[in-house]
């Protein structure tokens, strides 16, 4: 049994006996006869468990416990106390002690308590590790994008995270709606509470109602016991309802009540339950259109649409594709690699030309595929999935997706078109500037000037 234990007891025989027997069981043990020395050892070395008597000369065991907890909340403290003073042990547990053992006790009894204490500490450490990993996933730095559209999204997320307002996120499948919802939760005052996720599109009506609101035993066939719903589980935290547009109309009334009053009843139940929960919803559809079609309640829409966040599809922010590729390369490339693989210009042209109907999620899968098939540390056309190798990088050379655009800079647009044409010519001629100028129908000196101005390729190429 591995574990570092400090024994603090002014009864010499008890102290020496416990130290000897615990060492035989495989523990790393040290002991002292007073709390002041014990506190010095706690601060100079790392201990998993401190076993201390309550009655000590100088600083007593209760004050010792408080000082330990001030220094490090993670240290497990087990109290030894005389049988007649168990009320003191109960008070110690209220102050943060893990357990107590009443004198006289057997070593076996103490060992069992130490085993439980170490298991508790290891479990708590694992829970904290997993919580840290989840929180890291939703850090702002993981919302990747330098386009104006994504900057606005991030500004909104930062602004509303610390508030309690209901959020409605709109975006196509794969744009990262859940990541935005998670970022809002984990940067709010509710971050230590649960973040419960529900896909409303993945469940039929009966199951969805039970999932959201829970059910009582016997509420329907198969309800063999009472079950808490997702709203109850999210109490003190946030609930993320993805594809909220798929909630049936009759159930939308129940959701509206939760939004207005934070109360509901389980399926088949009569007791009214209250919850303290922040609601974040997402949809890939235009909810106002759904309202006009009669598929979504107007009053519910306005309750959900307190703070709207629209995530643009990847085809409308292609300038973010290189950043996203680099982000995913860091995620998928082995930690033992010296550097990230290079992405060939040919592969990059394809990745930039493709319209990404699956959005960021599809790009992530493509990068993972490319890394898996990259044998020479480089991402080339051959490492991409077969369907991407067939993409015509020139087919939509001059196309622009102007959907949702309210204004556009003509000069910026012309510059972008010019860049694309020169990149096309560069690929077509393998960088030969004489041939590039020829197929573009411009003098070579003009081409060289454009290359310098646009900072494209190696200006010494010929």
How would you describe this structure to a colleague?
With 462 residues, the protein is an alpha/beta fold. It folds into four domains: 4-133, 3-Layer(aba) Sandwich (Rossmann fold), CATH 3.40.50.2300; 142-312, P-loop containing nucleotide triphosphate hydrolases (Rossmann fold, 3-Layer(aba) Sandwich); 325-389, Helicase, Ruva Protein, domain 3; 410-454, Arc Repressor Mutant, subunit A (Orthogonal Bundle), CATH 1.10.10.60. Helices cover 47% and strands 13% of the residues. It has 19 helices and 14 strands. It has helices at 12-24, 35-44, 61-71, 86-94, 107-137, 148-161, 177-186, 205-213, 230-233, 249-261, 287-293, 298-304, 321-332, 345-353, 359-373, 386-389, 410-429, 433-440, 444-454; strands at residues 4-8, 28-32, 49-53, 76-82, 99-103, 167-170, 195-199, 238-242, 263-264, 273-274, 278-283, 307-310, 342-343, 378-379. A five-stranded parallel beta sheet has the order 2-1-3-4-5, with helices on both faces. Helix 1 links the parallel strand 1 and strand 2 (28-32). The chain is extended, with a radius of gyration of 32 Å. The termini are far apart. Residues 4-118 form the Response regulatory domain. InterPro entries: AAA+_ATPase (IPR003593), AAA_lid_NorR (IPR058031), CheY-like_superfamily (IPR011006), Homeodomain-like_sf (IPR009057), HTH_Fis (IPR002197), P-loop_NTPase (IPR027417), Sig_transdc_resp-reg_receiver (IPR001789), Sigma_54_int (IPR002078). Residues 143-372 form the Sigma-54 factor interaction domain. Pfam families: AAA_lid_14, HTH_8, Response_reg, Sigma54_activat. Keywords: ATP-binding, Nucleotide-binding, Phosphoprotein, Transcription, Transcription regulation.
């Amino acid at each position: 049994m591995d574990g570092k234990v400090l024994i603090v007891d002014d009864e010499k025989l008890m102290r020496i006996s416990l130290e000897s027997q615990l060492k035989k069981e495989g523990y790393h043990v040290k002991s002292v006869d007073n709390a002041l020395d014990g506190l010095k050892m706690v601060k100079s070395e790392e201990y998993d468990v401190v076993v201390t008597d309550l009655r000590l000369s100088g600083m007593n065991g209760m004050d010792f416990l408080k000082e330990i907890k001030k220094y490090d909340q993670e240290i497990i403290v087990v109290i030894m106390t005389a049988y007649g003073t168990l009320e003191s042990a109960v008070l110690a547990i209220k102050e943060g002690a893990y357990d107590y053992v009443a004198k006289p006790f057997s070593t076996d009894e103490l060992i069992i308590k130490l085993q439980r204490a170490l298991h508790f500490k290891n479990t708590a450490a694992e829970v904290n590790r997993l919580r840290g990993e989840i929180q890291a996933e939703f850090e702002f730095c993981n919302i990747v994008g330098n386009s104006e559209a994504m900057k606005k999204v991030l500004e909104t997320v930062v602004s509303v995270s610390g508030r309690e307002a209901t959020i409605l996120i709109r975006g196509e499948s794969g744009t990262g709606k859940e990541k935005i919802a998670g970022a809002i939760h984990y940067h709010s005052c509710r971050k230590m509470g649960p973040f419960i996720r529900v896909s409303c599109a993945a469940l039929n009506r009966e199951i969805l109602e039970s999932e959201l609101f829970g059910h009582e035993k016997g509420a329907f066939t198969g309800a063999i016991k009472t079950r808490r719903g997702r709203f109850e589980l999210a109490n003190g935290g946030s609930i993320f309802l993805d594809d909220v547009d798929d909630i049936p109309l009759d159930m939308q009334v129940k959701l509206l009540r939760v939004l207005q009053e934070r109360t509901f009843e389980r399926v088949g139940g009569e007791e009214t339950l209250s919850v303290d929960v922040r609601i974040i919803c997402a949809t890939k559809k235009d909810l106002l259109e759904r309202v006009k079609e009669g598929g979504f309640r107007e009053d519910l829409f306005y309750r959900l649409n307190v703070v709207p966040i629209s995530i643009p599809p990847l085809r409308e922010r292609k300038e973010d594709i290189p950043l996203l590729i680099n982000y995913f390369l860091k995620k998928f490339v082995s930690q033992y690699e010296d550097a990230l693989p290079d992405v060939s210009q040919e592969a990059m042209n394809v990745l930039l030309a493709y319209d990404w109907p699956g959005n960021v999620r599809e790009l992530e899968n493509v990068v993972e595929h490319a890394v898996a098939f990259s044998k020479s540390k480089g991402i080339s056309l051959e490492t991409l999935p077969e369907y991407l190798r067939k993409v015509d990088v020139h087919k939509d050379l001059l196309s622009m997706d102007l959907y949702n655009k309210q204004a556009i800079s003509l000069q910026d647009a012309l510059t972008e078109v010019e860049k694309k044409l020169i990149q096309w010519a560069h690929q077509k001629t393998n960088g030969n500037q004489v041939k590039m100028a020829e197929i573009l129908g411009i003098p070579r000196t003009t081409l060289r000037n454009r290359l310098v101005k646009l900072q494209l390729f190696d200006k010494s190429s010929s």
